[in-house]
Amino acid sequence: MFGKHPTRAELVEQIRPLDRFHSIWLLARINILLALGRIHSTEKQTVQLQTYLVNLLIGEELFQDLKRRFGSERLEKRQPFHSLQILTLMKMFAVEGTKTGGLRPDMDINASHRLGRCLIMANDFLFTPENLRHIRRERPSIKRKRIALQLQVGSGLEVNNPPMINTSIVRSEMIFGEILKEISCSMDIRSLFQSRSGMALEDYIDHVFGLLTYYITLDFEKLIEDPGLACVNLNTFFPETSKDLAAKFRDMEQTSLDKLETSLTVPSLLKPYHDFIAMRKRLLLEVEAGSAIPMHVGFVQEKLESGLFWTIFNFLKTTEERLSLFTDWGHLFEEYISRMLAQCCAASEENYTRFPKFLDNGEEAFDGVISTGKYWVVMEYKGGFLNAIAKYAEDEREFIRISKRNLGPTKGPESNSWPERLAQSSQQIQNREGP
Question: Residue 162 burial (CB < 10 Å; 0-12/13-18/19+)?
């Protein structure tokens, strides 16, 4: 965009004159607008929103450059402003922005245009020359090229495609509500979470859902007219909950700009344009006493599904507790899949058998079997996770290692990978009377 790939120092030079707090506050408001665009907008509304942002953030000189380079592109297809770009720049402002006395982009048009220039520059930090080298045509391994591309785009897809709200609520209620109450786990997850957080799991989910409902039902035109709608006071936002529960939720999900800066300056192997763990851990940034704004509405949405697991995880104090949670999650996930398959097969001609066992020794043969006449479909259920390095460091070796551990064949007598287990159980069926 600027004739060459800008350096971090060049971007920081553009950031430094701007006020850190008011720049991040404006970026967070823009990110809410973009979330509303993803959830509700037609193509016409997307063009309207992006046009508004171009007029707000892009000066005449940069506008002419963009027009010359991308004038034939459609705004609804190639949007100049997007959440991955904004989150990446918010992180840089938290660390590099001027803490007091800087220019305010919400009040100064030149400062606003400088912020827009920073956003356009930030795009170049989302795809680096190193990224291009890893997916180059001349790279011998097609498999490695595909893995590299997956690692490069995975974080952005995750940011821009949070889990569906309706399925997330049902899944979380089944796994951490209905099923968790009925099956035995190595830990009492519900009691442990409540004792550590001060909230029952149901109360926590209700608060997240209430917060999400507020933001996804905002009118983006009204939000443009009244920026104050972007902020909530968690002390009074939930009128039907106790002040104590509201305070507990606030303590769990709200952070200050200084605390965010501290968490972002911890040395890490993760790529900064992929790693938004600190923003996912605490969703809301304090704007003033009693008032806060979400850094990304999609992260609020995640808390109804995958984010709920990590919220529980973050309250566990020891390695043993965290390993136990992963084990328990595996059992909960197996039970969830089993119940869903049973529901699907109930109205069909197929017969579903959950967790069938061998008659002679009582050992479990498979997680599930669907039988249709003389044919059996045997199944193993896996609900694993990639660690942060495998997901956000663009480390192909770690990604392959964790993927093989979770899904692929391994060596040794303790192996329990799904291909081996299916093969072993199938062989045993041939050697015995059936399960």
Answer: buried
Domain boundaries, the chain: 8-126, 165-319
Pair of tokens at residue 164: 């569906």
* Reported confidence tier of residue 77, pLDDT bands at 50, 70, 90: confident
Distance of alpha carbon 207 from alpha carbon 248, whole angstroms: 11
pLDDT tops 90 at residue 359: no
The arithmetic mean of pLDDT across residues 386-395, rounded, is 94
In the β-sheet with 375-379, what is the strand arrangement from edge to edge?
351-354, 368-372, 375-379
- The type of residue at 25 is W
The phi and psi torsions of 232 (rounded to 5 degrees) equal -130, 155
Residue indicated by tokens 């933001």: 215
CB pairs under 8 A, 24+ apart, for 258-261? 260/94, 260/285, 261/94, 261/95
**Tokens standing for residue 12:** 């920081």
Q: Is 94 exposed, middle or buried (0-12, 13-18, 19+ CB in 10 A)?
A: buried
CA 195, 199, 203, 205 torsion: positive or negative? negative
CA gap 311, 179 in Å, rounded: 19
Cβ neighbours for 179, distance < 8 A, ≥ 6 positions apart: 332, 335, 336, 339
What does pLDDT average to over the chain? Answer: 90
379, 369 contact by CB (below 8 A):
yes
Are the C-beta atoms of 40 and 226 separated by less than 8 Å?
no
User: The pTM is what?
Assistant: 0.90
Confidence band of 414 (pLDDT split at 50, 70, 90): very low
Locus of tokens 């799904």: 418
For residue 76, what are the CA distances in angstroms to 49, 92, 161, 171, 284? Answer: 10, 27, 17, 32, 29
Phi, psi of 292 (to 5 degrees): -145, 165
Task: Return d(Cα 153, Cα 288) in angstroms, integer.
Answer: 35
Strands annotated E in 297-364: 351-354
pLDDT value, residue 422: 66
**Alpha helix positions (H), 226-318:** 243-253, 257-264, 277-281, 297-302, 306-314
Cα angle 292, 297, 299; round to 5: 100
